[in-house]
Amino acid sequence: MNHRNWIAVASAEHARRGRDNPEGGFMQVGHGKLAPLRRIAAGDRVAYYAPATALGGTDKLQSFVSIGVVHGDEPYEADMGNGFVPWRRDVRYAVAAETPILPLIEQFDFVEDPRRWGYKFRFGLFEINEHDIRLSPMR
């Protein structure tokens, strides 16, 4: 089976919450939407990119904050309180250092125009090739 590679986008606080969860790693995308998670399968690799430290933040963190392998068969709902019940996938995160993206921009295949490198990140989740997932020094 061919596994796919993904970049997911979230604030560093949110990505770290999934990475460091004491009950096991998880991922959420698009503020807890189900549809994007249905595209992902067990065995796929996901790297989280954080444009900022906090949701809506302006600090320009612009770093990869986690990388791991998806496991479990299907997305599931998780009650986070206050009526927020997002969809999740389980992820086994690797121990890795957070890595700034800027030194890597010109090496990524998914970046069509280095002057507009941030365009694809607006989608919240997008597929990348094997070359691009291996570029990350986080592996």
Explained architecture:
- The protein has helices at residues 12-19, 35-38, 130-135; strands at 5-9, 26-27, 45-50, 63-77, 87-93, 99-100, 125-128.
- Strands 1, 2, 3, 4, 5, 6 and 7 form a seven-stranded mixed β-sheet that branches.
- Helices cover 13% and strands 29% of the residues.
- It is built from three helices and seven strands.
- The chain is α+β, with helices and mostly antiparallel strands.
- It starts with a strand and ends with a helix.
Lay out the secondary structure.
Elements: E1 5-9, H1 12-19, E2 26-27, H2 35-38, E3 45-50, E4 63-77, E5 87-93, E6 99-100, E7 125-128, H3 130-135
Parallel strand pairs: 1-3
Antiparallel strand pairs: 1-7, 2-5, 3-4, 4-5, 4-6
Low-confidence stretches: none
Cα-atom Rg, whole angstroms? 14 Å
Task: Give the topology string: H per helix, E per strand.
Answer: EHEHEEEEEH
- Percent of residues in helical segments? 10-25%
Largest sheet: 7 strands, mixed
Number of strands: 7
Tell me, what's the shape?
A: globular
Number of helices: 3
Mean pLDDT: 93
Distance between the termini: 21 Å
Protein structure class: alpha+beta
- Quote the beta fraction: 25-35%
